[in-house]
């Protein structure tokens, strides 16, 4: 039920010693063809990690035969030396597989500003090549975990073709992706331009609407590969729908496993003049620490919803906005609504519904609460 | 050393029962003239509280004889009824003092979305009027505290004239002011336009550069009153300098008392193409939860500084940025610099110096860390 669910893909995950824990930390996904079509979406952070710089170049041609991924180090902000490490890694994978380095993408995750121990990584790559198998997707998913508590995988079935995927990410979830590595595979026949368009659409309505803590990573990478092994050529709509389903499934798994979170919060802004307005208002709530701490404390503090939206330029009138939390309209016309005591926040799922009454568009942003465990995990992460 | 340090001002603070703790919660500051010049700066939040709506109208004429302030309730998002409560409060003050309601500003702080108990507030106002005195400034400072642990006051001496001030605020500190109420007084002779310009300048380089938790309040209010009682007419530069000194003093007190904070963090961005760029980059750091939690954990995680700046549109090249934390240049040219082990973060003060090497401008943003106590205080605030 992973990247090896579609035909013609092999994968592996091994422990190379990058993590002091001894847990698996090198993953490899190989496309055995016949096609080698690929597409990708990367972080928009202006300090892209070395593997992002490398993989962007590789993916420019929309052709890919392998992706090597490591946890235990982001290889970000490591200068020309770090880029050389990524290049060496790709060359090593290529040599082991008998392909070109320009057909190998690299993705890394872990601490920023630390060089990778190449004396461990390269033997790990060799070991991963030796372990490649048609059911290695789960091992690959495990090897890319950092603070994730569970591996994230997905599979979506078409008529005679399949989309599979693995993901990691449990913090820094934010717009323009998360510290998130995703590899999607499909055995459908998909032209490069179509795959890129479908992937961009799929990410825009899934991971790009997850804003767990507003922090944008230097390493976010989503790569999709299509090898045509099924011989089936689905329509544009079918490909887009399958990739969107896969990315949404993975995004919700990331949300559910966000560092220290105790709530999954869906903020739906409706009655907006535009989707952009709805997203802006939703994101302002998702990034408001006072709202997020209140929800951690099971406090339906609708005043903090308004205070957050009040910082945006979305179209609305202050005396027209309604806020409903888990079914109770606690704010009407920008003022006191039904009793807040009626709101049950004891479960993990929270639905905040904001009606701007300024139009007909809507959008949902997903976020988490801000918990004591989040602070603890992130203050202790690198020490 | 407060609003009653300048000549011709009286103040008082009393417990009216708005707070369940029984602590003081109503403050009054009265200008006995001869001039009644005033200026103000208010929150830019698009859900301004009822007292903000009221006081904006009152201050439009730049004349003011009294300010009544309450803690224990923000009177925000309370609709037309809340505005009527504010109006009634101003009328009551005016009647007690024998002045017009249009000469009375109102400021409130506390929970959003709850009506004020007028049956307690109005008798409190009466009691405050009875207690007005030329040394009542400290009592007034105490009566506006919410989660503040100490009252905030300031005094700045000119040649024959004085500026005094009180402030509250210990959370939601953010650009365009904080949940912050400030009253400044001076016995200098200052024309209305000059007072407004000087106050705007003073706030722009002080409280507007404090960004404790990125949350913008519905109630922020800074009011300055000048009564000319000293007979001294300082220059524009002298007035601006004194107000700036007073506001900076108060801003640093707010920072030091921010909810749950264990660090005061000064983020100076230099080598910027513009002051706006420096502020944008500094603010991105101040709002990055991963950086703030790292600093709480005494972790000089410069990678998170770059990741934060990398989300902005400030002018810089990724391989040109240096980061110095408490004197150690841990990042050079966007890559690994001196050993992070050399950084001592054990004290409360942290200086992060970012050199964008893209120009000659600089600016400092002040913020706090994100601590377990912050989450605890803000999740428990209204429950």
Automatic annotation (TrEMBL), chains A, B:
<dbReference type="GO" id="GO:0004358">
    <property type="term" value="F:L-glutamate N-acetyltransferase activity, acting on acetyl-L-ornithine as donor"/>
</dbReference>
<feature type="binding site">
    <location>
        <position position="378"/>
    </location>
    <ligand>
        <name>substrate</name>
    </ligand>
</feature>
<comment type="pathway">
    <text>Amino-acid biosynthesis; L-arginine biosynthesis; L-ornithine and N-acetyl-L-glutamate from L-glutamate and N(2)-acetyl-L-ornithine (cyclic): step 1/1.</text>
</comment>
<keyword id="KW-0055">Arginine biosynthesis</keyword>
<keyword id="KW-0808">Transferase</keyword>
<dbReference type="GO" id="GO:0004042">
    <property type="term" value="F:L-glutamate N-acetyltransferase activity"/>
</dbReference>
<feature type="binding site">
    <location>
        <position position="383"/>
    </location>
    <ligand>
        <name>substrate</name>
    </ligand>
</feature>
<comment type="subunit">
    <text>Heterotetramer of two alpha and two beta chains.</text>
</comment>
<comment type="pathway">
    <text>Amino-acid biosynthesis; L-arginine biosynthesis; N(2)-acetyl-L-ornithine from L-glutamate: step 1/4.</text>
</comment>
<dbReference type="Pfam" id="PF01960">
    <property type="entry name" value="ArgJ"/>
</dbReference>
<keyword id="KW-0068">Autocatalytic cleavage</keyword>
<comment type="similarity">
    <text>Belongs to the ArgJ family.</text>
</comment>
<keyword id="KW-0028">Amino-acid biosynthesis</keyword>
<dbReference type="GO" id="GO:0006526">
    <property type="term" value="P:L-arginine biosynthetic process"/>
</dbReference>
<comment type="function">
    <text>Catalyzes two activities which are involved in the cyclic version of arginine biosynthesis: the synthesis of N-acetylglutamate from glutamate and acetyl-CoA as the acetyl donor, and of ornithine by transacetylation between N(2)-acetylornithine and glutamate.</text>
</comment>
<feature type="binding site">
    <location>
        <position position="179"/>
    </location>
    <ligand>
        <name>substrate</name>
    </ligand>
</feature>
<keyword id="KW-0012">Acyltransferase</keyword>
<dbReference type="InterPro" id="IPR016117">
    <property type="entry name" value="ArgJ-like_dom_sf"/>
</dbReference>
<feature type="active site" description="Nucleophile">
    <location>
        <position position="179"/>
    </location>
</feature>
<dbReference type="GO" id="GO:0005737">
    <property type="term" value="C:cytoplasm"/>
</dbReference>
<protein>
    <recommendedName>
        <fullName>Arginine biosynthesis bifunctional protein ArgJ</fullName>
        <ecNumber>2.3.1.35</ecNumber>
        <ecNumber>2.3.1.1</ecNumber>
    </recommendedName>
</protein>
<feature type="binding site">
    <location>
        <position position="146"/>
    </location>
    <ligand>
        <name>substrate</name>
    </ligand>
</feature>
<feature type="site" description="Cleavage; by autolysis">
    <location>
        <begin position="178"/>
        <end position="179"/>
    </location>
</feature>
<dbReference type="InterPro" id="IPR002813">
    <property type="entry name" value="Arg_biosynth_ArgJ"/>
</dbReference>
<keyword id="KW-0511">Multifunctional enzyme</keyword>
<feature type="site" description="Involved in the stabilization of negative charge on the oxyanion by the formation of the oxyanion hole">
    <location>
        <position position="110"/>
    </location>
</feature>
<dbReference type="InterPro" id="IPR042195">
    <property type="entry name" value="ArgJ_beta_C"/>
</dbReference>
<dbReference type="GO" id="GO:0006592">
    <property type="term" value="P:ornithine biosynthetic process"/>
</dbReference>
<feature type="binding site">
    <location>
        <position position="168"/>
    </location>
    <ligand>
        <name>substrate</name>
    </ligand>
</feature>
<keyword id="KW-0963">Cytoplasm</keyword>
<feature type="site" description="Involved in the stabilization of negative charge on the oxyanion by the formation of the oxyanion hole">
    <location>
        <position position="109"/>
    </location>
</feature>
<feature type="binding site">
    <location>
        <position position="259"/>
    </location>
    <ligand>
        <name>substrate</name>
    </ligand>
</feature>
């Amino acid at each position: 039920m992973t990247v090896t669910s579609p035909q013609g893909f092999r994968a592996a995950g091994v422990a190379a010693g990058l993590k002091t824990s001894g847990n698996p930390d090198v993953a490899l996904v190989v496309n055995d063809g016949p096609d080698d079509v690929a597409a990708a979406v990367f972080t928009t952070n202006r300090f892209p990690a070395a593997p992002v710089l490398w993989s962007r170049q590789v993916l420019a041609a929309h052709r890919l035969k392998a992706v090597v991924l490591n946890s235990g180090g982001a290889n970000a902000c490591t200068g020309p030396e770090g880029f050389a490490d990524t290049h060496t890694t790709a060359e090593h994978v290529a040599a082991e597989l008998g392909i070109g380095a320009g057909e190998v993408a690299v993705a890394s995750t872990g601490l920023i500003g630390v060089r990778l121990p190449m004396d461990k990584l390269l033997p790990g790559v060799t070991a991963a090549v030796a372990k490649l198998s048609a059911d290695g997707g789960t091992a690959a998913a495990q090897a890319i975990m950092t603070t994730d508590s569970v591996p994230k995988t997905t599979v979506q079935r078409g008529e005679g073709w399949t989309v599979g995927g693995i993901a990691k990410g449990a913090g820094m979830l934010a717009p323009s992706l998360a510290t998130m590595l995703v590899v999607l595979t499909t055995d459908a026949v998909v032209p490069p331009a179509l795959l890129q368009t479908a992937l961009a659409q799929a990410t825009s309505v899934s991971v790009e609407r997850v804003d767990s803590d507003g922090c944008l990573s230097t390493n976010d990478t989503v790569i999709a590969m299509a090898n045509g092994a099924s011989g089936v050529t689905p329509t544009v709509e079918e490909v887009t729908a399958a990739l969107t389903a896969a990315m949404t499934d993975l995004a919700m798994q990331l949300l559910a496993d966000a560092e220290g979170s105790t709530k999954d919060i869906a903020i739906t802004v409706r009655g907006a003049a535009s989707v952009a307005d709805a997203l802006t208002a939703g994101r302002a709530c998702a990034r408001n620490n006072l709202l997020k701490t209140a929800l951690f404390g099971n406090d339906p503090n609708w005043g903090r919803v308004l205070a957050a939206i009040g910082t945006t330029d979305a179209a609305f009138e202050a005396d027209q906005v309604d806020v409903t939390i888990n079914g109770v309209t606690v704010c009407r016309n920008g003022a006191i609504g039904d009793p807040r005591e009626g709101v049950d926040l004891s479960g993990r799922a929270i639905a905040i519904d904001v009606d701007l009454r300024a139009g007909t568009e809507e959008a949902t942003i997903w976020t988490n609460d801000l918990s004591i465990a989040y602070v603890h995990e992130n203050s202790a992460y690198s020490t």
